[in-house]
Automatic annotation (TrEMBL):
Organism of origin: Colletotrichum sojae
Name by which UniProt lists this protein: SnoaL-like domain-containing protein
InterPro entries listed in its UniProt record: NTF2-like_dom_sf
Protein origin, superkingdom: Eukaryota
Length: 191
């Protein structure tokens, strides 16, 4: 009976979100793919609190951004999409006690600035912490995205942590992402 009481106590305390974990994990995966792969920002206004904070790049360069509210976050993603085609693959997602952590491998195809003559675009470092790229190079970024939730399971804070970036050269986003997709499928099959 003592064991049953411990389980009941745990499920009504720190592990009260256990029944929602799979749904939260699926929501986070779908959200990231909607925002980055499809430029669908409706999930930002639906799932984030109005006073949400998003932190990007502070862990690797101290040249990151701290964004506040829906409009600043949507503008950030719009600007990023302006110069890149993006394909995000969520590899592993873990939800626990008000936090969702997603390990992603994201592929960015550098399109240069639309006002530049694409054929004359020179190699450049488009973002702090990125390697130099030229027109149509594909960059692979390994990232961890951490969502902190409030009591209503809405996102109150997001942090993007970059683990590593490499220039893969010219090629297809889909072809480069194939290995990441296979890794994701293998991990999902084990869970």
């Amino acid at each position: 009976m003592e064991q049953v009481n411990r389980i009941i106590e745990e499920l009504s305390g720190d592990s009260k979100d256990i029944a929602f974990r799979r749904a939260l994990e699926e929501t986070a995966r779908h959200h990231l793919m909607s925002v980055l792969n499809h430029q669908d920002y409706d999930t930002i206004t639906a799932w984030y609190t109005p006073d949400v904070t998003m932190v990007t790049g502070l862990d690797t360069t101290l040249d990151g951004e701290i964004l506040k509210g829906h409009d600043e976050i949507i503008n950030h993603f719009d600007n990023f999409q302006y110069e890149n085609s993006i394909l995000l693959v969520p590899i592993l997602t873990i939800s626990d006690r008000g936090r969702i952590t997603v390990y992603t491998e994201t592929f960015y195809q550098w399109l240069a600035k639309p006002e530049d003559e694409a054929k004359n675009a020179r190699d450049e470092q488009p973002f702090v912490g990125w390697p130099c790229v030229s027109y149509h190079d594909v960059v692979k970024s390994r990232e961890v995205v951490v969502f902190d939730l409030n009591e209503e399971m809405k996102v109150r804070r997001i942090e993007w942590r970059q683990l590593g970036v490499e220039n893969l050269g010219k090629g297809s986003l889909d072809a480069y992402a194939k290995q990441s997709e296979e890794l994701r499928e293998m991990i999902e099959g084990d869970i």
